[in-house]
Amino acid sequence: MELKICGLTDEQNIYNIIQTVKFDYLGFIFHKYSSRFVKKQLTPETIKRLPDDLKKTGVFVNSALADTLNVAEAYGLDTLQLHGDESPAFCASCKSRDYTVIKVFSIGKALNISLMDKYSEVCDYFLFDTAGTYKGGNGKKFNWMLLNEYTLEKPYFLSGGIAPEDVETIRSIKDPKFSGIDINSRFEVKPGIKDVNKIEKFSNQIKK
Length: 208
Hints:
Elements lengths: L1 E4 L5 H10 L4 E5 L14 H5 L6 E6 L4 H10 L4 E4 L5 H8 L4 E8 L5 H5 L7 E6 L25 E3 L8 H5 L6 E6 L4 E3 L2 E2 L1 H11 L2
Parallel strand pairs: 1-2, 1-8, 2-3, 3-4, 4-5, 5-6, 6-7, 7-8
Antiparallel strand pairs: 9-10
Helix pairs in contact: 1-7
């Protein structure tokens, strides 16, 4: 089970997490309307010098392809998480440049399998988040029972309101395509600043 910590904005907080927690992905939000907009907080050089064994992930929302690729190169990103209405062709362009591509689907009352299927060949992972007011960071869960309706082979990350007390429920999901979890707002002291102790305890439990 891979762990992605998203919405990071503070260099010291990041290094405190790295020194304490076993995890896989660092998530940085490049959406100017987000309270965790990383360009206001961290320089490209700060992100580039983070450990190579952690996958540096940029979160984008309907950014132009050229802008997305320019940011990815400037910040030394490994993974692009596309959280808007990006087309399959957009995803394919990113993937063709050797980025790992995570396409996000906001889930309401149902899974749109036919839409997801259009992205199966052009993404490495899907990420299922909760439909809400914002493109992520809403702090709410969708009905995880809907995962039983997922019939595609593409591996996915689970996101949306995941909290420290959800360990047992997450561990009960036995779908082999369930590849990882993405945590953000429910593990924060304030937007962009994570509670290291909460994440450490959660990571230790989820990776048993």
